[in-house]
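Q: For a teaching session next week I want to show students how multiple molecules come together into a single three-dimensional assembly. I've collected the sequence lines for a complex. Could you give me the predicted structure tokens for the whole thing so I can convert them for display?
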Amino acid sequence: MNFDTLELSKSMRRLLLLLLILPMALLVMGVYGGLMQALFRAGIVTSDPFVGGEYYRGLTLHGVINALVFTTFFAVAFGHAVITKTLNKALNERWAWTSGILMIVGTVMTALTIFAGRADVLYTFYPPLQADFFFYLGLVLVVVGSWIAFFTWIPPYLEWRRENPGTKTPLAAVGIFVTFIVWFIASIAVAVEIIVLIMPWVLGWVDGINAMLARTLFWMFGHPLVYFWLLPVYVMYYTMLPRLAGGKLYSDTAGRLVFFMFIVFSIPVGTHHQLMDPGISSEWKLIQGFFTFMVALPSLITAFTLAASLEYAGRKRGGKGLFGWMFKLPYFDTSRWLFAYFITGLILFIFGGISGIINASYQMNAVVHNTAWLPGHFHMTVAGPVILGMLGMSLYMVAKLTGKKIRMKKMVLAVPYVYSVGLLMMSWGLMRGGLQGMPRRTNTGLTYSNPDSALYRADWQLFTDVVVVGASIMFLAMVVYFVAFFLTLVYRRAEEPSMSFGWTESVHESPTPVRWLHNFRPWVIVALVLIFVTYAPVMYDVTTSNYGTSPRYGPDSPAPRVSPSPQSEDLPPPSSSDAEAGDERAERLDLLIE
Amino acid sequence: METQTPTDETVEEIDDASFFPKGALAFFILLIVFFAILWFSMYFEILARQ
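A: Of course. Below is the structure for the complete assembly, covering every listed component.
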């Protein structure tokens, strides 16, 4: 592909650097928060002075910065660069900057509320947990900012289509547009949750909130969010990895099919996060579980296509036999250091993918639901291919945008391997512990990992210890990465800044567009129909279930009170034994809090 | 990309038209078998817990 000729303007280079460096600085705190989670849960620390001593504050910081802020900023910066370079079109800089400033203001607002201890609600911010109004406003600004970035890419694309009739849209541009189509549709759900349900409740305009409806809207957004994280990395895998390996992409058409399938199947799947929730009919949970299996299909196609591309590269480098090509790939070539970030992510995704299928299997979910298995699983996706791809590409882009040489290249090459060993250990500990019942989102250091507690579980200790060792290895790898990243930034310029990507060629590529893989519109229409069909009954269920609304949950009201509903008024009064059991639970809870 | 000179370590030329990824196919089949083993191990875990 010879379209990568337009240079980014100085103003755009500055914007991209800002969008890459600011979240990287925040990521230092997010990664620190991750290590502290492991230490808290093992009972090694009981207080973290940096974030006010709060376990849940640290967990919120870790989730919001790592999973929401870093990924969204990266996707926007990467999208700006890919769209400009693949279409050879300059973007509207005023709107690009407006988008960036909104995202930065939103991030600062959200981060300050977390540090001030006014938003200990985790990154899922499930009501009736309630945060400061500015926590939600900050998140809205980040999302709206990312929408504006997306909108700035549409006019140049339409212009490109007019100027290039009968030409295929570059695969990388297809991938970026799919990423943001999925993001835009899905984030409407969370926008409704925040603006219609949460904000009026936080401002005191309404007394209670429908927690089930809020959760359903969140997961309508929350699972597609996973693909918003993953798809920019898929763009790297399809359009850069084969060339890095020394070969070509096996099939351009397969890549296009994969991206379009994500538009259709990414969103009607969120209810598989609510398989144990009341108020949603079993059949709709099952159907959305089925669609979760469908969304695994593009990833399986990707596994084959990328393996074929790597086989092509390996054979070109002299690989023989059925698997000899695997041993000829440039795993430890410092001049191709980025390959290491991609291949380790792919290996981790094998484990992250299958554990996700287990989560989405209706009855199996009962075994792992709300256990440490879940963070074990999703760290092998979001902290695996997603973060590794984004870390590698951030460093690559920053070096290109500043014209600087990457420092500590051997260490930079070692980082993904060391990090992956740590991640595999940590996830193994969490998943094995989860299968034994170890809970997630719980400061187990106070109870299950505390030999002085009546709740101590000696049989979980091995898993907790392995998690600490794994998390520590990951942390050390990240420290090395941060040092290399910021050293690269502060060193003197070695060449003129010039953003360029090494796009790969394809083994099989149709010269003209395949009609059904040329337009986004039919795929978006099918996706919207599928979302309506799968979510309308779910929304009906959660809005007609008579659970009433819930007031704010807080330390002063540990057991959320439920507003009277027609059904609860019909219930008989609690028996004395129920009341005694409730009193006993409250006393134990008081003891724990003390 | 910084680095990308795809032919720098070429040992063998490959004819694109006749290239068949038999190794990738074998890898993919093993991947599916591995997935099935993990999925069924969890399934039998459920059965064991009754």
